[in-house]
């Protein structure tokens, strides 16, 4: 099944792609790196080049200014983390392998607190992601990005809670570990997120596409 065919699968009225947190600090060499992040940035760019059937493409960014105890010198990697994606630093930038030309709006989350779901983010005009999508009649979303077991999961589950038909393109995500990724996928499936692949076979989960 081609990327274009995957993008077309929905028969609904208006479809958007949400690209979650494909930023330098979440890719190799970053302060909170996820293995495979750089390759994922390239894969999403390749997918965007083929999948021209999205009506809208948006992205989210972790964008911290002073997030309080979300940052820690001795992080527990559950509720506290090493400093990452700090506003004004290269770590907060999109990975250079991500083609951003199709992205219409970027939603920034976590300025003064920890934030995981893209639906906690606002664009440069202060418009929340859900409002932006509703203003454009979007009723179906595909979610890709980093990390499967944190921000991708919470973004997808919030999309379902907000009444959007939601899919995660599993091979266009990267998780922190195999175990937590598999658990997150099961949690998303239980929450009525549809799990599909853009193509091929997913290394972390062994999911056939």
Automatic annotation (TrEMBL):
Record family assignment: Belongs to the isochorismatase family.
UniProt entry keywords in alphabetical sequence: Hydrolase, Metal-binding, Pyridine nucleotide biosynthesis
Keyword match Metal-binding: yes
The UniProt record lists the keyword DNA damage: no
Signal peptide: none
Taxonomic superkingdom: Bacteria
Record EC number: 3.5.1.19
Domain Isochorismatase-like: 16-195
Pathways per UniProt: Cofactor biosynthesis; nicotinate biosynthesis; nicotinate from nicotinamide: step 1/1
Example GO biological process: pyridine nucleotide biosynthetic process
UniProt name for this protein: nicotinamidase
Gene3D superfamilies tied to this protein: Isochorismatase-like
Enzyme class, broadest EC rank: hydrolase
GO molecular function: metal ion binding; nicotinamidase activity
């Amino acid at each position: 099944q081609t990327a274009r065919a995957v993008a077309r699968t929905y028969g609904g009225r208006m479809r958007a792609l949400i690209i979650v947190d494909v930023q330098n600090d979440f890719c190799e060499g970053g302060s909170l790196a996820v293995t495979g992040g750089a390759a994922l940035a390239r894969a999403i760019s390749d997918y965007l080049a083929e999948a021209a059937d999205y009506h809208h493409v948006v992205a989210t960014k972790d964008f911290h200014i002073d997030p309080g105890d979300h940052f820690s010198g001795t992080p527990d990697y559950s509720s506290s983390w090493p400093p990452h994606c700090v506003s004004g630093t290269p770590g907060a930038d999109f990975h250079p392998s991500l083609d951003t030309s199709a992205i219409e709006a970027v939603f920034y989350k976590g300025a003064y607190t920890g934030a995981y779901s893209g639906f906690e983010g606002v664009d440069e005009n202060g418009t929340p992601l859900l409002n932006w999508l509703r203003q454009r009649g979007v009723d179906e979303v595909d979610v890709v990005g980093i990390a499967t077991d944190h921000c991708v999961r919470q973004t997808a589950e919030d999309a379902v809670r907000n009444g959007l038909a939601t899919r995660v393109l599993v091979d266009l995500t990267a998780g922190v570990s195999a175990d937590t990724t598999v658990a997150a996928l099961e949690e998303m499936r239980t929450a009525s997120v549809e799990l599909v692949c853009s193509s091929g076979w997913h290394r972390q989960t062994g999911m056939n596409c």
